[in-house]
Write a structure and sequence with these properties.
The chain is mostly beta strands and 879 residues long.
Length: 879
Amino acid sequence: MRTLSFVFGLVLTATPLAVPSPAQAATNWTVTGPGGAVAARLGLDDAGRLSFGVDRGGAAALAPAPIGITTTAADLSGGLAFTSRSSRTVHERYTRTTGKQLKRDVTLAESTFSFTGTNDARLDVVVRVSAEGAAYRYVLPSGGTVTGETSSWTLPADAPAWLLPYSPNYEETRVQTTAASAAAGDYGFPSLFQVGTGTYALLTESDVDGRYDGARLTHDAGSPAYRIKLADPRITAADRLATPWRVAVVGDLATVTGSMLVDDLAPPSKLTDTSWVRPGTVAWSWLSEHSSPSDPVRQKQYIDFAARNGWPYVLIDEGWSADWVPEVTRYARARGVDVLLWLHWTSLDTDQERDTLLPRFREWGVAGIKVDFMDSDSQARFRWYDDILAATAAEHLMVNFHGATIPRGIQRTWPHVLTLEAIRGAEQFRTRAATNTMFPYTRNVVGGMDYTPVTWAVTDRDTTDAHEVALALVYESGWIHLADKPETYEAHPEALRTLSQLPATWDETRLLVGAPGRETVVARRHDARWYVGGISALPAHPVSAPLDFLGGGRYLAETLRDGDHGLVRESRIVRRGDTLAVPEPANGGFVTVLCAYTGSATCDKPVRHVPATTLTLDPSTTDVHPGGSVTVEAVFTLPAGGPITGVRLAPRAPEGWTVSGAAVTGERMRGGDSLTGTWTFHAGDDVPTGRADLPIAAEFTFTGDPGSPDTPGRRPVHVEEAVRALVPPENPAGTPAVSDLPFLTESNGYGPVERDRSNGEAAAGDGNPITIRGTVYPKGLGMHAPGEVTIWTGGACTGFSARVGIDDEVTQSGSVDFQVLGDGRPLAASGVRRSADPAASLTADLTGVRVLTLRVTDGGDGKNFDHADWADARLSCGS
């Protein structure tokens, strides 16, 4: 599958219209979309106030409602005079990396209406209409400071509505109501209304970035009107400002669910090469085992599970440590699995943090990141989105945004965004079929939705097992984060078999049956295969879905559904025009795979299993001083099986190092074959002190590689090991404070380790003076369990001493065990210390120790409030 995302073609036909004088200016204009089904109406009343409405099939779907914008320089919501109109046809072809339709060919009618207002202030209103709906935006040619919009939508008072009470992470429970009877307050996009018999309107916005902020709807009780409310009291623009599009997707439910109007209105892709962007299924451990992301052994078990089932990714969530992620990532890649890492957004909110962390992740071999807790629609946060998207794209790191805003065309403009949360998903640990069946018609219309489905770990649910499995198909997401344990999936083998066959990208999507809050049956095509998924919030009933979308010939239809005693699988031969009939229990679901019938009893494709190989390095650890070098021998072996092809064994020099020696290649290796190479790594004179990995990697393809459902064909396997080199600093002398010495490595349970301050919060330098039971200490380390630092002592020191305890800054009791290790051997420990305990003396004999480790653990009851102080921590060393 080709996943390049760019504008294939753009045809713009401008048609200037006659410009009447203000006295002759028309007061109502119509912009009709291709095919004539949808039209937008722009009006100007006698007071110079604008209105905007949308018709479908010649009838009003959205009655004209006031629009306008205000700035510090002018009120452009009234007193406007029409000056000109120009029109053109916009025709675009583009390809997405994710979504319900990868290749898009769209035509929109566009008109730009120009007005003048107070003090000759100029306002342009740009209207675009497609077969799926209509949108408008404001353009302020001279920029300015926006103070608000009078933009609004008017709905029929009794229009059924499916609304989301607003919160900046879009994780509230969606409610069913009517337009006028909805509670007063703010509602998040997208908002769905039934505005007529068989006609729906989905209200949202598109093309939001740091030049503006994210909006929402606000509503007064009893009113059919919904007004635009901005996140900020003021929005600044130094130059020409084009606001986001105010969007109404209008049509029947099939049109609404299949719409890509939000993407059509977004800017084209900023990337010319997206070959590195790979959708797929992800094994994710946090929901079912909150502590597992801090356990590298358990993460390797998830990796092994993903490899067995052909899942291309594992996400390591909050709790991972830089001490072991590089090694776990190498372990995963050798098995055909890539690693994704979780981060709090504040870890990447400065240029310095992005310039440091993102290249480091790529050096480790990490494929992407999940960034969490943005929780804001402000202009400042959208400027952060602009920065992080450019920075991750430069490092070829894919992205999942959690605690995030909704998609507003971001996945077209930045195609390495695989998915976003902005949904009350399974991690809320309460699943209801009635809300599950709203999401396909609301949130998921506008972009990838990281619901984290298929979770038996969520016991507070009213859904069946087949309903849970079907969520992985009914919900569109470029990364499908399946959120239960390997052991749980293996205890449901029919579910696991289906999940391992599902793609994450789609060439075509069609709604077959459904109504919001009741049921959804959707058909998605990937290559020549169709996948039909259904979820229900209804009592037990038979589902009937027409198969008119099939091509010619016979198809094998394999259906996974709820049986009387668990999941069952059934097969039948079907043709175009047949009806797919599936019995569904209350709140049930199903998944049907349809493939061309060739006589096979199954549609299953082979699962990708990477051949097991080994790579050994000699030496595996070493000390190298600045200006020094180390020679490394690497032996790559295929113990059995094969063949593997196109083998290339080569080193990679980290920053500040060089390496001599050519790559070693082997066209074909069979079981028992080895490939050997020798290289010399040279440390630069100014190479930084501390730990450094000196990596050597083998890449190869293998015969019969089936790829994954989303990346078929041969993709090189990357097998890497690294010599763990230590570039030591100068030996310490005298009685130095530990806080004045360089760290070889550092990890912390929350934020960075602080020098001469308490841990504080997540940012560097935000701690307080180190204080234990009222005593303030000017020197020391502030940590948060679990955490540790390592320090070079070089055998030059004889003793360590500190006063240890929980810092007074915590509001509730913490518990920490302070541990001292020398060259990995335990030397001393405090036992569990709690907030009520006074500072304790902790000493250790360091005779002969080269590397000192200061470690804090959480005391066995979780890490909350575990702010650990190493007060007055010092060494006793020779001169």
